[in-house]
Amino acid sequence: xxxxxxxxxxxxxxxxxxxxxxxxxxxxxxxxxxxxxxxxxxxxxxxxxxxxxxxxxxxxxxxxxxxxxxxxxxxxxxxxxxxxxxxxxxxxxxxxxxxxxxxxxxxxxxxxxxxxxxxxxxxxxxxxxxxxxxxxxxxxxxxxxxxxxxxxxxxxxxxxxxxxxxxxxxxxxxxxxxxxxxxxxxxxxxxxxxxxxxxxxxxxxxxxxxxxxxxxxxxxxxxxxxxxxxxxxxxxxxxxxxxxxxxxxxxxxxxxxxxxxxxxxxxxxxxxxxxxxxxxxxxxxxxxxxxxxxxxxxxxxxxxxxxxxxxxxxxxxxxxxxxxxxxxxxxxxxxxxxxxxx
Length: 342
Fold this sequence. Notes:
Layout: E1 2-4, E2 11-18, E3 29-31, E4 40-46, E5 52-54, E6 59-63, E7 66-70, E8 74-76, E9 82-87, E10 93-96, E11 101-105, E12 114-122, E13 128-137, E14 140-148, E15 153-156, E16 159-162, E17 166-173, E18 178-184, E19 194-198, E20 203-211, H1 212-215, E21 236-239, E22 251-254, E23 256-259, E24 266-272, E25 276-277, E26 285-288, E27 297-307, E28 312-321, H2 325-338
Parallel strand pairs: 6-13, 14-20
Antiparallel strand pairs: 1-3, 2-4, 5-8, 7-11, 9-12, 10-11, 12-13, 14-16, 15-17, 17-19, 18-20, 21-23, 22-26, 24-27, 25-26, 27-28
């Protein structure tokens, strides 16, 4: 046979006795086999369960520095319900009783700390329930991304990150004559241009690029293009040493500045002109003037620079070697000696 325990209003089943003693208060029925006289009992007690309650009694959460966290709500009760929060919130955060949210941006000093508070809900009858709240703010770490060589590309993903945050970093060449080579640093895949890094501390990583024409000079992108294409633009050549007068046979230090275009790399330098150069293939060199003559001499010295793609540009200065007085006298003696023969 089946015995059913049905509490009156305001009471709940607290337990069973006799032949049903093995059951708990969670069992509202007891099954008995009547093979003799049997005795069973059901015990009831007043129902002290609140008219309403918060949906959880424990709320621990770990969040980043920038927070918009919805706190648990309550069920039952005579509405409307009112929420309030007391205790410690992370610095820079506030609680909205209307939206039941804790939100804000904590100061960096809050990182790595736990903050405790108490959420209280009250209904129109004055009944209340409370919940202990723990909010832990993750540590903050800086992700720095370097580019090598500078100007060869860009990378995204740098900045302030949360502890254990998985950040996607992506390296992109500036032009199609450059290519991504690899990453230096604790990234998931050092050979992938787009990969991830897990922030367990401050991190510095480097995106390495290469100039395609150094490794693959036969590549189509290395062919000389017109300036309109943005590829193969000439370098900028400036001779810093001003044109001047120097004595025959003396030396002149030549200083120049050669700037590669944004899409290329300087492949060669070449000085040309009369006289001699200590190194005609260097950007800066020393020029030795020819010997002086009986008349003034003017020389043009030219520096030509070329990119790996074949574009070139030049700059020139004029150097004057004055006439030599000794050379004039020698020439005059020769002329005087020759006159009687006429």
